[in-house]
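Input record (one chain):
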Amino acid sequence: MASICAACEKSSEVGGRIYNCDSCRRPLHADCIGLTATEIKALDLRQRVLKLFCLDCEKGLACLPEVLCKLNNLTDTVNKIDKFIFGNEDSTASLFKSEIVNEINDRVLRKNNVIFYNAKESDSELPEERRNFDLKIVMKSLSKICTVSETDIVKVLRLGKIKSDGKPRPIKIIFNDHGLALKILKDKHKCEKPYAINGDLTLQQRDQLKALREELDILNKDEELKTIKFINGSPKIVNKRDYEKGKENENVKKDQLKNRRKN
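The corresponding structure, as predicted from the sequence alone:
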């Protein structure tokens, strides 16, 4: 099966030789990331030394020193809190620690999932036919966002019991790759109506998002200047203009980096 380039979404049969990012493993055409003839030769060596990184991972590596510094500061803070709270651990502290661990585990279990809304349910009473019906709707809708095959999906299942009012239950889509789930969530605005897509959030995350929306309603009471955006996986209230300007600057930097690599 031909690989699909994550940049142009065309196969190796159309756009030529494909290489995988050494960090996230996303497939990319040599031309799409501006590889020179010398770089291609180096990458084709049986025991190669040259590492290949996509634009996103290259940007992440540039931020690594700052991230490590913040991580060290955060580790120090957590250690101080841990010492303060759990120095003389009692049943309350033990329960608190258990809740944190459970929340982390829950988020890890949900990281490859997305929730698909407003999809009509099948009238069939056969479970297999109902699943195939849901899978067909999901595949057709996701194809508008990015390239997805049935082998990318581990499972699709309806959440909750069938409702008496006929309102369709959400569909949980479980992917075998976290990167694909992230890509779909990043481009979920491309999803055709009446369908909608969101992340598979834990109860704590849903409560946090609900509180942010209530705060947003208060802030936008007179004029809608702010919105909620997920930054590094966490929802935050941001100024619309500042956020859009920041994204534009980020895209310009990506284009400049791509052009430098081509030259």
